[in-house]
Structures are given as structure tokens and as C-alpha cells.
Design a protein that fits this description.
Domain 3-hydroxyisobutyrate dehydrogenase-like NAD-binding: 168-287
Radius of gyration: 20 Å
Domain 6-phosphogluconate dehydrogenase NADP-binding: 6-165
Keywords: NAD, Oxidoreductase
Number of helices: 14
Helix content: 40-55%
Family: Belongs to the HIBADH-related family.
Largest sheet: 6 strands, parallel
Shape: globular
Strand order of the largest sheet: 3-2-1-4-5-6
GO molecular function: 2-hydroxy-3-oxopropionate reductase activity
Length: 296
């Protein structure tokens, strides 16, 4: 019998599926629930167990991990008679790895405490590739003791795992991460259009740029997307639009000016309005091409 904690996993999307599978590979007993039957079938094929409801999934779990798109979905699965807080056992640890507003995380931790459930907000960065390779960066908010307990599990999912402060801190750091990523992708997209219109060998140019100060994880991960105009979603524009809303709102609340971030947030919103919300966020290149007079 495994001495590892029993895990309930709620949300098996682009990120959640490979992450839950990495826990199974690490020896954890994982019971999952999501709304898509094919994702449940995938979990079962990987060696996990499938539940018919949130209540069934979390009932016997020592750790509940959630990975859903946004604050409304977190609230929907956490609260109410069929939600996590009413059905998880007292003493369970809820690790929310969704990217949501810091205030939602703070409110969830407070509500869970009344039920005897501990909470960590633990959003991630690294995209689908990072999830598959188990090299995610995980930024955590919550109590030190809960972080220490969760760390072995998180180490099966990521490479850089840091407690950033009290409840909500992980989400605040994730918001800053999404700001940096969006601005970086936008800068790369503008450079790609500039280079192509100048007649430069794009692959050679991106290779040499990535070897210098202009290099970044974003350019490394997204270079092939730019070169091949391959915008199959690893992280959708729709989700980055949501995250830019989180960071601009949070910055307003604390009195931080984000002049460049505000512009990029509008560019992300415009791309979404033009029907590209389901594409990877590297599709910001399409917005630059349109602005440059190209037919996209």
C-alpha cells in the first residue's frame, strides 16, 4: 500500500490532464473529475480512477487539486452542497492551481478554514509543454506548514516551487508572470514582422537573438510557433485575456501603473474580438500582421 496521500483532481484540461498523469507516474493514487468524458477516459487509461461527481472525487482525498479556467469556475466547484468544501473531509488540503484573482483565493481560504480545510493557491507557469515535462514554475500562497506538506506532490509537477507569501500571493505573482509573458510575446511578434518585412532570414535571426540579451524562455518556447504560424493552443488567447484583466485590476487596486501592460491587454482583447480567442497566445503575431497591412 502506498503511503502517499490520496489525491482528488478536479479539472482535466490542457494543463490538468498531463499534470494529473505526472502524479500517477510518481506513485500517487489519483481520482479525477471533469465534465468531458474523453478526459476521464484518458485519466483512466493512465492509471487513475474516475469519479462521477466532485463530491465522489473528494470524499476520501487527503489532497484536492483543482485546475480550472478562472475564478467563476473555482467558485462553482468549491462552494455549494455539491462542492469541495461541503464534501471534502476535515483536515484535507486544497491546492488550487488555477489562475484566478488574488481576492478569490483569499476568500476561498477563509471559507475553507471554517470547514477545517486548508488551502494553498498554487498557480503555474510553463504552458502545456511545461506541464507534460513536469518542469512548471509553481508560485504558492498560504501557510508554511501546508506548503511543506504539499511540496513533495508539487515536485512531481514542477521544477521551481516557491512559497511567495500568505493566501493570494501565488495569484499575485502569477498575474505579474502573465504581464511579463504577454509583453514579451508582443515584443517578439513585432520583431518577427519587422524582420520578415526587412527580408532577413527569420530562423537565423531568431536563433542569434535568442542567444543574446533578447533571448527568453518565451522566445525559446514560441519560436517554432512564429516560424510555422502554428497557433495550436498551448495557452489560449481567451485565458490570457482573462489574466490581463486580473493583473490590470489588481494593479489598479494597489496603485501600480502598467502603461505597457495596458496596451498589450488591449491588443490581446482585440485579437480575441477578431475571433482568435481559441488560438495560442503566440497568435499575437496575427494582430501585428493585421496592423502592418497583411491579410491574415
Amino acid at each position: 500500500m502506498s503511503t502517499l496521500p490520496k489525491v482528488a483532481w478536479i479539472g482535466l484540461g490542457i494543463m490538468g490532464s498531463p499534470m494529473s498523469e505526472n502524479l500517477i507516474k510518481a506513485g500517487y493514487q489519483v481520482t479525477g473529475f471533469t465534465l468531458e468524458q474523453e478526459k476521464l477516459d484518458r485519466l483512466a487509461a493512465a492509471g487513475g480512477s474516475v469519479a462521477g461527481s466532485i463530491a465522489e472525487a473528494v470524499r476520501d482525498a487527503d489532497v484536492v487539486v483543482t485546475m480550472v479556467p478562472a475564478s467563476p469556475q473555482v467558485e462553482a466547484i468549491a462552494y455549494g452542497p455539491d462542492g469541495i468544501l461541503e464534501n471534502a473531509k476535515s483536515g484535507a488540503l486544497l491546492v488550487d492551481m488555477s489562475s484566478i484573482t488574488p481576492q478569490t483565493s483569499v476568500d476561498l481560504a477563509k471559507a475553507a478554514k471554517d470547514k477545517g480545510i486548508r488551502v494553498l493557491d498554487a498557480p503555474v507557469s510553463g504552458g502545456e509543454a511545461g506541464a507534460i515535462e513536469a518542469v512548471l514554475s509553481i508560485m504558492v500562497g498560504g501557510e508554511q506548514a501546508d506548503f511543506d506538506e504539499a511540496k513533495p506532490l508539487l515536485e512531481a509537477l514542477g521544477k521551481t516551487i516557491v512559497l511567495c507569501g500568505p493566501h493570494g500571493s501565488g495569484q499575485t505573482v502569477k498575474a505579474a508572470n502573465q504581464l511579463i509573458v504577454a509583453v514579451n510575446i508582443q515584443a517578439c511578434a513585432e520583431a518577427v514582422v519587422f524582420l520578415e518585412k526587412s527580408g532577413v532570414d527569420l530562423k537565423a535571426a531568431l536563433d542569434v537573438l535568442n542567444g543574446g540579451l533578447a533571448g527568453s524562455t518565451v522566445l525559446t518556447r514560441k519560436k517554432d510557433n512564429f516560424l510555422g504560424r502554428d497557433f495550436k493552443p498551448g495557452f489560449r488567447i481567451d485565458l490570457h485575456h482573462k489574466d490581463m484583466g486580473i493583473v490590470t485590476d489588481a494593479a489598479r487596486n494597489v496603485g501600480a501603473a502598467l502603461p505597457v501592460g495596458a496596451v498589450v491587454a488591449q491588443l490581446v482583447a482585440s485579437l480575441r474580438a477578431q475571433g482568435d480567442g481559441g488560438l495560442d497566445h503566440s497568435a499575437l503575431l496575427r494582430a501585428v500582421e493585421r496592423l502592418s497591412g497583411d491579410q491574415v
